[in-house]
Amino acid sequence: MIKKSIAIIGGGSASLMLAGSIDTQKFDVIIYEKNKALGRKFLVAGDGGFNLTHSEEISNFITRYAPRQFITPFINHFSNQDLRDWLHSLGIETFVGTSKRVFPKKGIKPIQVLKAFEQLCINHNVKFQFGYTWKGWKDKALFFENHLQQSFVTCPDIVVFALGGASWKVTGSDGTWLNFFNEKQITTVPFLPSNCAYQINWDATLIHKHAGSALKNCCFSCNEQSKKGEVVVTKFGIEGNAVYALSPNIREELMKQRKALLFIDFKPEFSKEDILLRFQRFKKTNMKSFLKDCLHLTDLQIDLLKNATNKETYNSINLIADKIKSFEVTIIDFSPIDQAISTVGGIHLDELNPHLELKKLPNHYCIGEMIDWDAPTGGYLLQACFSMGKYLANYLNQNN
Ligand SMILES: Cc1cc2nc3c(=O)[nH]c(=O)nc-3n(C[C@H](O)[C@H](O)[C@H](O)COP(=O)(O)OP(=O)(O)OC[C@H]3O[C@@H](n4cnc5c(N)ncnc54)[C@H](O)[C@@H]3O)c2cc1C
After folding, report:
1. Distances 290 to 286, 302, 317 between C-alpha atoms, Å
2. How many CA atoms lie within 13 A of 161 on its CB side?
3. Given a cut of 90, is residue 112 above it in pLDDT?
4. Which protein residue's CA is at the shortest distance from atom 30 of ligand 1?
5. How many angstroms is it from 174 CA to the middle of ligand 1?
6. Is residue 291 lining ligand 1, measured as CB closer than 6 Å?
């Protein structure tokens, strides 16, 4: 049987799952990667929390993605539990943390996980071309330049793009390829940061005192979406899982009106009436001691309230209770895109058929973060990249 050739461009998470799962009895597979090694962004992710996926129940799991309809078939094909089982088969044990996120078992380093992926590809006879940067097309052929500035063209039977997003350029995922697709009349969406810090003009004295402090167990809302959790207040503004999860909503507001209003409920477990009742029962009349000793607000929360109110409001239990339940903060910008954990933008969803094939370029597929979808951190990003890689491997195996 004559084997078909597959060129996978980019050697990150989505690519490795595809290459490790494709039937190499049927296909000759080469990964072209601009770096001298695979999975640089995977290792960067490993430096932080390294959530490989999240263990929540699948019906909730898929609600984390936008647009949900796009990602659902891939997650249904290869779920969070499938990923854990698959990693187990590679010798990578995982555990569920208190946050329900899934991590490699203690003692397993990110480089070991990456090496397990790489070894699987080697065992499958997948070939690697390192230092090869894809630079578009020359006529119908893929055009590359290698690390010695030599040009190279190739015409494989099947091409899979797995070029990643546009943050942390140092990892190789720089998003500079949008124009190559535009030249083929393929619509792309400009990249924007997601899962990033947001800029706030804090009062200078307040931030001098509190930069680096966390707002814990609060509920954050923007544009009718809420998320309980924690953020850190920084000189730049605000960052952390709770605001990362609100990224689509914050982004929509920032794009519409160049600002986004974030509302923070400092006491989500109390209603306003609970606060008023506690004040009535509190023996002292001093507001600060009520906030601190009775409501257990932190110094940061109390200073935020003080800073945002005049004396009259601060000392009125009715008005201050409103502020405690809905403290308004104005976000004025995103962090620079390169510092974002992920990006949205890339290949427009309308350009792909349900099997991730470019409608205008048959036998050319896209997988991973390079497509315009979004998800919060916490394992959802890697899971979607792995699921797309697995889905496409299965589709190609069955249809060739
Ligand atoms: C700091 C940080 C922490 C993160 N933590 C987590 C986490 O804990 N959990 C989670 O789920 N996700 C996390 N992520 C996100 C996750 O790492 C990415 O979403 C995921 O790696 C994207 O996979 P991908 O295969 O689409 O692209 P990538 O892994 O980015 O791979 C794309 C590859 O393509 C190569 N490439 C690009 N252009 C070219 C070209 N022209 N020619 C040849 N090669 C090219 C790049 O060099 C790169 O190796 C984190 C990201 C960051 C930055």
Report:
1. 6, 10, 10
2. 30
3. yes
4. 164
5. 10
6. no
Our answer on whether the CB atom of 50 is closer than 6 Å to any ligand 1 atom is yes
pLDDT (mean) for 137-164: 96
When the pLDDT of each residue in the chain is averaged and rounded to a whole number, the result is 96
Residue nearest to atom 23 of ligand 1 (CA): 13
Span 52-110, pLDDT tens digits: 999 999 999 999 999 999 999 999 999 999 999 999 999 999 999 998 999 999 999 99
Residue 185 DSSP label: T
Best substitution site from 178, 241, 382, 392 to test ligand 1's pocket, by max atoms within 8 Å of Cβ? 382
Of all atoms in ligand 1, which is nearest to the CA of residue 144?
A: 42
Stretch 276-285: mean pLDDT? 89
In the numeric block, which tokens belong to residue 279? 């004040």
Q: Which domains does the chain have, with CATH numbers?
A: 4-193+342-398 (3.50.50.60), 198-334 (no CATH)
Q: Please give the DSSP secondary-structure letter assigned to residue 395.
A: H
CA distance 85 to 55: 12
Which atom of ligand 1 is found nearest the CA of 38? Answer: 49
Is residue 110 within 6 Å of ligand 1 at its C-beta? no
Pull the structure tokens for residue 87: 């990693």
Rounded distance, CA 388 to CA 379, Å?
14
Neighbours of 359 (CB within 10 A): 11
**294 CA → ligand 1 middle, Å:** 46
